[in-house]
# Entry
Amino acid sequence: MTVIIKSEKQPVQSSVAPAKGLQVIAATFGGVIVTEKIRELIQDDESMTFRMNQMVHYLAPDPLPNWVKTLTILYRFDDGPLSLFNATEQYSGSVKISRETAPTMANQQVEAGLKQGPFADVEVLAVIYGKKRIQTPSVLADLARFFADEEQRGQIRMVNSFFKEDTWPNTWKSWTIFFKFTDSKRIQCVTGLENGALELPWSRRD
# Structure
């Protein structure tokens, strides 16, 4: 099924969280930013436990009815390395994020973001499209170029051809991008749906 939409602008999630305990930097679900709701799951012992197949109820209203959605979380403990969690709501088991126990779903450490060539003032930390993290250099470079251009007034159509692959055939996918400007500590997050557009706003301000 092909669905063509005109993307509504999503607010940009920005965060400089206190460097203590478990920090949820940003989180998205089905193309919607849900950072504050996910932060509410953090327990006194600095862990977080949840069931993916129940998140559609916890994060109601459903942002994408009748389609399987993914939950994407960028987090860290204290001043430690950034970690990335991404899973679909089809998973029925319990997920725990803690210091002692790695999540039962895929978990990837986020290394230094792309910052090369003429776009060295932008770090693209991680890109998720559907169920997969995108690490294709040309895609990351196109995104860095887009964020770096202060006069940018266009848009990028977020489709399979841009990401160079269909990461989840026959599914209306969401996408999430985490990035920062190198002169700022703030990590920003933009998200949306396949066939939508990446466009302003985001901010260079601390």
About this structure: The longest strand covers residues 22-29. The chain has one domain: 13-198.
